[in-house]
Automatic annotation (TrEMBL):
PANTHER family: 3-PHENYLPROPIONATE_CINNAMIC ACID DIOXYGENASE FERREDOXIN SUBUNIT (PTHR21496:SF23), FERREDOXIN-RELATED (PTHR21496). Residues 6-105 form the Rieske domain. The keyword Oxidoreductase applies. It holds the Pfam family Rieske. GO terms for molecular function: 2 iron, 2 sulfur cluster binding; dioxygenase activity; metal ion binding. Keywords: 2Fe-2S, Dioxygenase, Iron, Iron-sulfur, Metal-binding, Oxidoreductase. This is Benzene/toluene dioxygenase ferredoxin subunit. It comes from Stenotrophomonas acidaminiphila. The keyword Isomerase does not apply.
Length: 110
């Protein structure tokens, strides 16, 4: 397992209510990072219902959720859990940090 972090964007490029995407430098996993009221959360950028990118969907900053545009599955951006059908499996959550003026995330799965 690698401890390499992937640079996502400069801190000022990710404002509250916004999201940015990146690909893990080591595993190639798609990552989407959310800014929810100044707190950062990172999930795999893939709906667990039908392997479609979540970042194409819309974020609800009040509920703290992202909705997949394909079939309307919603996930909690804080922990990845599925909030409604047709998705029942949580989206993997990844570590995210602010460092050296940037936002970094990584796929920490074995």
């Amino acid at each position: 397992m690698s401890a390499a972090w992937t640079y996502v964007c400069a801190s000022e490029e990710l404002l509250p209510g916004e999201m940015k995407t990146a690909f893990d430098d080591v595993t190639g996993a798609p990552i989407v990072v959310f800014n929810l009221d100044g707190e950062l959360y990172a999930l795999e950028d893939q709906c667990t219902h039908e392997e479609f990118e979540l970042s194409s969907g819309s974020i609800d900053p009040v509920e703290g959720s992202i909705e997949c545009v394909l079939h309307g599955a919603r996930f909690d951006v804080r922990d990845g859990r599925a909030l409604c059908a047709p998705a029942y499996t949580a989206v993997p959550k990844f570590p995210v940090k602010r460092e050296n003026g940037g936002i970094w995330a990584r796929d920490d799965r074995d």
